[in-house]
Amino acid sequence: MTPDRLRAALRGAPDPQWLDAALRRVATEPTAIARLFATAARRCGRGPLPDPPGWTVDEAARALLLTALPADHAAVADSLYQHGDAAEKRAVLRALPLLPIGAACVPLLHDAIRTNDTRLVAAALGPYARHLEQPAWRQAVLKCVFTGVPLADVDDLHGRADGELAAMLAAFAAERNAAGRTMPADATALLDRLGAGSHPTTAREA
After folding, report:
1. Which of 104, 98, 101, 146 has the alpha carbon at shortest distance from 126?
2. What is the mean pLDDT of residues 200-205?
3. Contacts for 61 with CB less than 8 Å, ≥ 6 apart
């Protein structure tokens, strides 16, 4: 995902002039982002974008506002996340891979994964989760299985899945079977693949 792709996707969104003006203002007056970030959904809309898939109009607009900042991306992202509603938090999480922040905002991933909001959990496991240490990432994937978040939402799942995750999934499957419950189909497919020995236990260990 790139800012240019998001800009292209928003060409048909309501009130494009507002977004253009908001981006220019954030670039020259960074403190304005707090109000503009909160207003973005009302001005630009909340509907899904056909491309990129999985994004909504307000998420894309808010992500672009963060990319327009001249500096202090991590600090501003943290503040917007801490003070935002669920939709604003998701937008921050979706924007993180687009920002020059390194691993500075990993604490936001930990916070999102601890919540019971499956949309936040899914957003936390996007591309920025490459900065998430492997043990925490495994636990987050297991939480996806437990809460019904599609594993297709987990970025680089097949690259990071390893023997330790397979053992965790197998134990969870045994618990489900003992209770007369089935595993989600995507989790069963992943466990079957990992059981074939395609990933070593130590894959990308943090």
Report:
1. 98
2. 42
3. 10, 13, 19, 22, 40, 41, 43, 44
